[in-house]
Design brief:
The complex is a heterodimer of chains A (about 750) and B (about 160). By secondary structure, chain A is an alpha+beta fold. Helices cover about 30% and strands about 25% of the residues of chain A. Chain A has three domains: about 20-125 and about 185-260, Aldehyde oxidase/xanthine dehydrogenase, a/b hammerhead (Aldehyde Oxidoreductase, domain 3); about 275-440 and about 595-750, Aldehyde oxidase/xanthine dehydrogenase, molybdopterin binding domain (Aldehyde Oxidoreductase, domain 4, 2-Layer Sandwich); about 445-585, Aldehyde Oxidoreductase, domain 4, CATH 3.30.365.10. In chain A, a hairpin with a 5-residue loop joins strand 26 (about 605-615) and strand 27. The longest helix of chain A has 28 residues, at about 510-540. The chains are: A alpha+beta (about 750), B alpha+beta (about 160).
C-alpha cells in the first residue's frame, strides 16, 4: 500500500507549527463581550440570597444572569434525567458550581465583577466520602438519592468455583481523582443571530448542539456549532463545553452581541469533570496450574456532584474489571456514588485505568502465591480467539493479546545492574489490558462521513468526529488517499461544523479510526466507483480492469495506458457520475442482558501488554523508568508516527495517574488547582516508551485497524504499580504511588 | 504610555498601559494570536516568546519591560517567504505536534536552545524545555524533533515531507 502504514506527518500540522491555527480564544468579532461566572465556593448548601448589585454597578459590566434567566430547563447531562444545572438555582452540590454569570466589556472586568457577587448559602455538612454518601441516614445530594447508578455482571457462578479453587487472593485497591490538564483551557465564543453560532473548543459538537438548543428553548436547527481547533480534550471538553457554550449562547442572544467565555486554569480544574476516584474490592480464585476459575469484584466510583458520563464509565468498569482473561465465573458489581465534590466523567480510559490497576495488581499477587512467573500466568489465562470474555462475547478474529505477550517476552531483559552501592532497588512489572472499541453498551454507534472530489482531483472529507490532537484527520486522509490513488496532500478534512457534516456520534471510545474510518472508507469507495466507471468509458473497457494509483487511472493490463485522475474527475462531472458521497458506518448493535451484562457489546477490543523496568533510589525515593515496552494489537497500523504518538502520550498520562497526579481536597475544596501544585509530568518526567504494534486484522475496521487512543493509559498505570511493587518488595494498593509513598515503604522495609 | 520595541524584526510603536501583560498586547493589540495562554501564572510555558533571544513567559511579562527590546513570537520564526523554520519542519516530521497548543512555546524555547547550543545532549534539551508542558505527546517525540532540528541546522539540510 502507498499511504496506509506510512509515517505520514499530521495533515493539519502546518497551521499548528506556524501559530495560524485558530483556537476558540483566537476568534474575534466586532462588539464582542466576555463572560465569567461566580462559583459557589462551598461544597454543599442552599442558596438563601444572591446580591449582585455591586457587580452590576461596576463600570464595564453589561449584564448579570441568574438561573431564572435560562430560557430552557437549565439542565445538562449525558443520560436523562439530566441532573446538572448551568447556573445553580437553589442547591449547591460542589464548590466549583456556577451560580451567576457576569457579562462585561473585558474578561478581566467580568472576573472582578464576579468576585463582587455575594452568594449567601445556608451550608450543609458536605458529604465528602463514598462511605458517608452511602450511610443509611445520609442527606440526599439529589432527590433520587446518592447512588448515581449501579450495574451487575454475572457470568457463570462464582461461589462453587471459589470452593474448588486451590488458592484465593483478596484485596482492595484505590485510585485518586485525576485532572485532564489539556493545555488549552475550555473556551467558547457565541455569535448571535436568527441562528446562533458557537465556536467551541469541544469534543462532541452534536452533543453540544442538542443541549444548547434545549437550554435556549429553540430547535436544534437554530444552533450551529463550529469546532475551533481544540487544544486537547481527553474526554474533558464535553459537559463543561456544553455548560459554558450554553451560557455564552444565552447571553449572546439576550444582548445581541458576541460573547466569549474562557476558563482560567483554576476553573478548568475545579469546574470541569475529573477522572473518578475508585475503590475496588477484588477476589480471585485459581487452580494450582495457574488457571483462574473465578473473580468477584466490587467497584465503587466517587462521581462527585453530577452524573455526567458516570453511567457509562460505571458500565465500562463492569465489563473490564476482570481483565483480558478467559475466566468462566465472574461476578461484578459496579456503582457510582454522588458526593459534594467536582463531578467526574469521561477521561481517556473511561474507568478502565482504575480497574486495570486493581486487576493487574492482583494477578501479580496470585502469581506470587502460586510461585509462578508473572508473565506466564498472564499467558495461561489470556484471552484467545474463540474464548468468551467477561461479557460472554466470543471473537473469532483479532484477539491479539497473546501476540502482545510474546512481543513483550521477546524484549531484552533488564540489563546488568551495575552499581554495587546498594543504593538502588530494581524492579520489573508486567500488565495486560483490553479495552472495548465503539460505543458498545452505551448506545447505537453510527458515523456519517462524506467524501467529495473536485474536478482537479483533490478531495474534501467531512465527518462529525473531532480532531483533538490525536491525529484522526490524518488517518481519514490516508484512508481516502489510499483508496483513490492520490497523494495525501490532495486530501483535506473539513472543520467540524454541524451545518455541513453529518452527526457522527461522540468522539469517544477509541472509535474515530475504527467506526469513523469505516464510514470514510465506504464514502471514498463510492467515489472510486464513479471514477472507475468514467475511466472505463474513456478507455473503452470495464471499470474493473482499471486501478487508481499515483494520481492516475491506469489500465491494469497496460501500465502505460493512464489518464490523470483530475481528467477522469472532470469527465465524470460533465457526464453526471457523482463525485460526492455520504456514507454511514453502523456498528452491529450491542445485544446483551441488562441484568447480567452477558451478550455482544463491543465491535472489537484493543489488547495490550506492557513491561516496565524501574530503578528506585532508596535514599530519595526517586524512580527512574529504565525501560517501558508497550505492545498493542491495533489490527493494522494506519500511521506508525501517529500510533507511537498515541501510545507514548497515553502512557505518560497513565504514568502520571499512577505516580504523580492527585487532586487534593480539604473539606471539599480543591487545594491544588494550578500547575505548580498539581504535579503534571514535565519533560523531565518522561518515560522511554517503546511502542510495539501487533497487527491482528480486525474485520470491523478500515484496512483491519482498531483504535488505540485509550488502552495504553490503563496498561501504563498498572505496569508502573507492578514494577514499583516488585522493586520495593511491597504491594502498593493505592494510586498514585508517589515518591513519598515509595520512600516511606522503603524505610519501613529497612526498619522492619 | 507609548512603547516602542521590535517584534518579529519590525519596529512597533503602540499605546499600552505599562502594567499590561505582554501576552495581551501581542494577542489583542497586535493580533498575534499564535502566542497561547494556558495558565496565566508562568507554569505551563504555552505563552513562551523570545525576549532578546531568551525564552520568557509572556503572561508574566509587563509591557513596560519590553520598551526598546526585541521580541520574537511564533509568527516571526518562519522565513520571509513563508518557508518553515527547520525546527518547525523537524517537529512535524518527528510527530512532535499533536493538539498544537503547546507547540508555539515549544518551538520558540527550542530556538533559544539551539541558538545557544547547536548540538545539545538529551539532558540539555530536557532542561531547556522543562518549563513547557505538553499533555499529548509524552514528550519523546518533542525530544526527537529538537534533535532532528539540531541535525538539520548544523548540516544545512531541511527536508520536508515524509520521513521513513
Amino acid at each position: 500500500m502507498k499511504v496506509i502504514g506510512k509515517r505520514i506527518r499530521k495533515v493539519d500540522g502546518l497551521e499548528l507549527v506556524t501559530g495560524r491555527a485558530k483556537f476558540a480564544g483566537d476568534y474575534k468579532f466586532p462588539g464582542m463581550v466576555y463572560g465569567a461566572v461566580k462559583r459557589a465556593g462551598v461544597p454543599a448548601g442552599r442558596i438563601t440570597g444572591i446580591d449582585v448589585e455591586a457587580a452590576r454597578e461596576m463600570s464595564g459590566v453589561i449584564d448579570v444572569l441568574l438561573a431564572k434567566d435560562i430560557p430552557g430547563p437549565n439542565l445538562i447531562g449525558v443520560l436523562p434525567p439530566f441532573d446538572q444545572p448551568l447556573l445553580a438555582a437553589d442547591e449547591i452540590r460542589y464548590a466549583g458550581e456556577s451560580v451567576v454569570l457576569i457579562i462585561a466589556e473585558t474578561a478581566e472586568i467580568a472576573r472582578q465583577a464576579a468576585s463582587l457577587v455575594s452568594v449567601s448559602i445556608d451550608a450543609y455538612v458536605p458529604i465528602l466520602t463514598v462511605e458517608d454518601a452511602l450511610a443509611p441516614d445520609a442527606r440526599k445530594i439529589h432527590e433520587r438519592g446518592n447512588i448515581t447508578c449501579a450495574h451487575k455482571l454475572i457470568k457463570g457462578e462464582v461461589k462453587p468455583a471459589f470452593e474448588v479453587a486451590d488458592v484465593i487472593v483478596e484485596g482492595t485497591y484505590e485510585t485518586s481523582f485525576q485532572e485532564h490538564a489539556y493545555l488549552e483551557p475550555e473556551t467558547v465564543c457565541a455569535v448571535p443571530g436568527r441562528r446562533i453560532t458557537l465556536y467551541a473548543s469541544c469534543q462532541s459538537p452534536f452533543h453540544l448542539r442538542g443541549h444548547i438548543a434545549a437550554n435556549l428553548n429553540v430547535p436544534a436547527s437554530s444552533v450551529r456549532i463550529v469546532q475551533a481547533v481544540t487544544g486537547g480534550s481527553f474526554g474533558g471538553k464535553d459537559d463543561v463545553a456544553t455548560e459554558i457554550g450554553a451560557l455564552a449562547c444565552i447571553a449572546a442572544q439576550r444582548l445581541n452581541r458576541p460573547v466569549m467565555i474562557a476558563h482560567e486554569r483554576k476553573e478548568s480544574i475545579i469546574g470541569s469533570n475529573l477522572r473518578h476516584a475508585a475503590h475496588v474490592t477484588l477476589k480471585t480464585g485459581a487452580m494450582k496450574n495457574g488457571r483462574i476459575v473465578a473473580r468477584e469484584i466490587t467497584v465503587v466510583l466517587d462521581g462527585g456532584a453530577y452524573a455526567s458520563e458516570s453511567p457509562f464509565v460505571t458500565m465500562k468498569t463492569l465489563i473490564h474489571s476482570a481483565g483480558p482473561y478467559h475466566i468462566e465465573n465472574i461476578q461484578v458489581e459496579s456503582s457510582t456514588v454522588y458526593t459534594n465534590k467536582t463531578y467526574c466523567g469521561a477521561f481517556r480510559g473511561f474507568g478502565v485505568p482504575q480497574v486495570t490497576f486493581a486487576s493487574e495488581s492482583q494477578i501479580d499477587e496470585l502469581a506470587d502465591k502460586l510461585g509462578m512467573d508473572r508473565l506466564e500466568i498472564r499467558r495461561i489465562n489470556g484471552l484467545k480467539a474463540g474464548d468468551a470474555n467477561a461479557s460472554g462475547q466470543v471473537y473469532q478474529e483479532s484477539v491479539g493479546l497473546q501476540e502482545t505477550i510474546e512481543e513483550i517476552a521477546a524484549q531484552p531483559a533488564l540489563g546488568k545492574r551495575e552499581d554495587s552501592s546498594d543504593r538502588y532497588l530494581y524492579g520489573t512489572g508486567y500488565a495486560c489490558v483490553a479495552q472495548g472499541i465503539s460505543n458498545g453498551a452505551e448506545g447505537i454507534d453510527i458515523t456519517g462521513a462524506s467524501v467529495q472530489m473536485s474536478q482537479d482531483g483533490s478531495v474534501l472529507v467531512g465527518i462529525g468526529l473531532t480532531e483533538l490532537g490525536q491525529g484522526s484527520r490524518t488517518v481519514w486522509a490516508q484512508i481516502v488517499a489510499e483508496i483513490l490513488g492520490i497523494e495525501i496532500d490532495r486530501v483535506s478534512v473539513r472543520l467540524v461544523d454541524t451545518d455541513t457534516v453529518h452527526d457522527s456520534g461522540p468522539t469517544v471510545a477509541s472509535r474515530s479510526t475504527t467506526v469513523g474510518g469505516m464510514a470514510v472508507q465506504k464514502a471514498a469507495g463510492e467515489v472510486k466507483n464513479s471514477l472507475l466507471s468514467m475511466a472505463g468509458l474513456m478507455m473503452q473497457t470495464d471499470g474493473e480492469n482499471i486501478e487508481l494509483r499515483d494520481g492516475f487511472a491506469i489500465l491494469k493490463a497496460d501500465d502505460s495506458a493512464r489518464i490523470p485522475i483530475s481528467d477522469v474527475a472532470t469527465a465524470a462531472y460533465w457526464t453526471g457520475f457523482p463525485l460526492m458521497n455520504l456514507a454511514f458506518s453502523k456498528a452491529p448493535e450491542a445485544n446483551y442482558d441488562h441484568d447480567t451484562h452477558q451478550g455482544t457489546i463491543y465491535i472489537a477490543y484493543n489488547y495490550g501488554t506492557h513491561r516496565m523496568d524501574v530503578r528506585v533510589d532508596k535514599i530519595t525515593g526517586k524512580v527512574e523508568v529504565l525501560n517501558h515496552f508497550a505492545s498493542h494489537d491495533v489490527g493494522k497500523v494506519i500511521n506508525p508516527l501517529g500510533l507511537e504518538g498515541q501510545i507514548e502520550g497515553a502512557s505518560l498520562i497513565g504514568y502520571g495517574f499512577a505516580h504523580m497526579e492527585r487532586i487534593k481536597y480539604v473539606d471539599g475544596i480543591i487545594q491544588n488547582a494550578n500547575f505548580a501544585d498539581y504535579a503534571l509530568p514535565s519533560i523531565k518526567d518522561r518515560i522511554p516508551t517503546v511502542s510495539i504494534a501487533v497487527e491482528d486484522h480486525n474485520p470491523t475496521g478500515p484496512f483491519g485497524a482498531k483504535g488505540v487512543g485509550e488502552p495504553p493509559v490503563a496498561a501504563a498505570g498498572a505496569v508502573f504499580a507492578n514494577a514499583i511493587s516488585d522493586a520495593v518488595g511491597f504491594r502498593f494498593t493505592k494510586l498514585p504511588i508517589t515518591r513519598e509513598n515509595i520512600l516511606d515503604a522503603v524505610q519501613r522495609g529497612n526498619h522492619g | 504610555m507609548l512603547i516602542q520595541f521590535t517584534c518579529n524584526g519590525k519596529a512597533v510603536q503602540l499605546e499600552a498601559e505599562p502594567e499590561a501583560r505582554v501576552i495581551d498586547v501581542l494577542r489583542e493589540t497586535l493580533a498575534l494570536t499564535g502566542t497561547k495562554e494556558g495558565c496565566g501564572r508562568g507554569e505551563c510555558g504555552a505563552c513562551t516568546i523570545l525576549l532578546d533571544g531568551i525564552p520568557v513567559n509572556a503572561c508574566l511579562l509587563l509591557a513596560g519591560k519590553i520598551a526598546g527590546r526585541e521580541i520574537m513570537t511564533i509568527e516571526g520564526i518562519a522565513g520571509a517567504d513563508g518557508s518553515l523554520h527547520p525546527i518547525q519542519e523537524a517537529f512535524l516530521d518527528k510527530g512532535a505536534v499533536q493538539c498544537g497548543f503547546c507547540t508555539p512555546g515549544m518551538v520558540l524555547t527550542t530556538k533559544a536552545l539551539l541558538d545557544e547550543n547547536a548540538t545539545p545532549e538529551v539532558g540539555e534539551i530536557e532542561e531547556a524545555l522543562s518549563g513547557n508542558l505538553c499533555r499529548c505527546t509524552g514528550y519523546g517525540k518533542i525530544v526527537e524533533g529538537v534533535l532532528e532540528a539540531s541535525r538539520r541546522l548544523t548540516h544545512g539540510s531541511n527536508h520536508s515531507g515524509e520521513v521513513t
